[in-house]
Amino acid sequence: MNLKEKYADLIVRSGLNVQKDQIVVVRANVEMNEFVRLIVKSCFNVGAKDVIVRYSDDEINRMPYDYEALFHNETAEKGACYLSLVGEDPDGMKGVEPKLMANYRKALRGMTQPYRDKLDYMHAAWCVASVPTMAWAKKVYPESEDALSDLWNAVLRISRVDEKDANENWNEHRASFDKRVHILNHLDIESVHYTNSLGTDLVVELPEGYVFAGGGSFLDNGNYYFPNIPTEEIFSAPKKTGVNGKLYSALPLAYNGAIVKDFWFEFKDGQVVDYDAKEGKEVLTSILETDEGSKYLGEIALVPYGSPISALDTLFYETLIDENASCHFALGASYNECIEKGLEMSEEELLEHGMNQSFTHVDFMVGTSDLSIEATLKNGKKIHIFKDGKYTSEFDEYTLN
User: Fold this and answer.
1) 3-167 falls under which CATH superfamily?
2) Could you tell me which of 303, 36, 323, 321 has the C-alpha nearest to residue 156?
3) Closest to 375 measured CA to CA, from 204, 238, 220, 211
4) What is the C-alpha separation between 299 and 331, in angstroms, rounded?
């Protein structure tokens, strides 16, 4: 196999963990058709029943999908798994009113509730992976004479695809998360305090029965899969009403063809009460006005500064990659798996346990080389999880009682 074939095989076998006689739904830009052929071949090699490819391009992306809800709900009912190959032109939706796009996403999410439930309650596997396109490559490497090759090299590198077996690389990567996840889940943390020189000074309470996860996830049938390729994060959910202080972005946010730069949020009892940006404030407004839950945080994610992606010192204008270069938060929905017995709870019960609910989920990066994260345990003890943007030896060597 060449590296692109290995990458496709990794996505199918580890990212989605496609099962025999399963339907696979692939969403991709039409420019990715050569790589999609490798995906389809790999799916059939592992025994997939059918592979449905939904192509789009930057013009189609500006149009509504009249039958999208019906398609996703019906395929979810048939036990399909879902692959989204991202890599569209970061400027492809430039000029489209952010509020219109936010309203469309909100409406579509509401219409696809049966499909969303399959994903949220771990009945269906899904994976998001990146595939370079020319417009994206030129945005990332504007001075390069061969931007597409440069971006492919970067994507394969950060996806841990090399001369060795890529699936085995990811089994080892999975194991690297386990110790830290175990410590975090047994520390009995009450809150975490974020500070850095940008001005971030934020206290985040965790809900009772919080759960950190990292690497991949288990479906309800026991199958393990990786929702994101690449991934470097360990994540959980904050208590909806337990976030207070100021939070500054560390990297620009690329969102629906617009760029938001140098922005900040102020939180009180979990809710955004003030915010601003040097560029793109109207985009933040469209996100925050999605619904009641979009004004609250739904995810807290730990990524050490100097991780393989951040070491490239490159802004990729693609959240899938950029969020794995830096500690981040997300406005909007929390993940059911981030609280004990969350996969057995209704939306109302999740809310009662402090888990935010929303039609949106937007990640933004906050990690810096001087980020400090100090945890306060329920017994009053304090422990530094991060110093200078990285996990501390105090945390990594922590002995659980």
Assistant:
1) Thermophilic metalloprotease (M29) (3.40.1830.10)
2) 321
3) 204
4) 7
Q: Rounded CA gap, 333 and 363, in Å?
A: 11
Is 0.70 surpassed by the pTM of this model?
A: yes
For strands 81-86 and 328-332, give the pairing: unpaired
User: Could you tell me how many helices (H) and strands (E) the chain has, helices first?
Assistant: 12, 21
Q: Along the 401 residues of the chain, how does pLDDT read in single tens digits? A: 899 999 999 999 999 999 999 999 999 999 999 999 999 999 999 999 999 998 876 555 544 555 677 788 888 899 999 999 998 877 665 666 666 566 666 666 667 778 878 888 889 999 999 999 999 999 999 999 999 999 999 999 999 999 899 999 999 999 889 999 999 999 999 999 999 999 999 999 999 999 999 988 898 899 999 999 999 999 999 999 999 999 999 999 988 778 899 999 999 999 999 999 999 999 999 999 999 999 999 999 999 988 889 889 899 999 899 989 989 999 999 999 999 999 899 989 999 999 999 989 999 999 999 999 999 999 999 999 999 999 999 999 987 76
User: Distance between CA 233 and CA 76 in Å, rounded?
Assistant: 27
Distance CA 249, CA 182 (A): 28
23: tokens are 């339907």
Stated as kind and residue range, the H or E segment containing 128 is strand 126-130
Give the number of C-alpha atoms closer than 13 A to the C-alpha of residue 281, restricted to the C-beta side.
7
Q: Where are the domains of the chain?
A: 3-167, 177-396
Strand-pair partners of 245: 202, 267
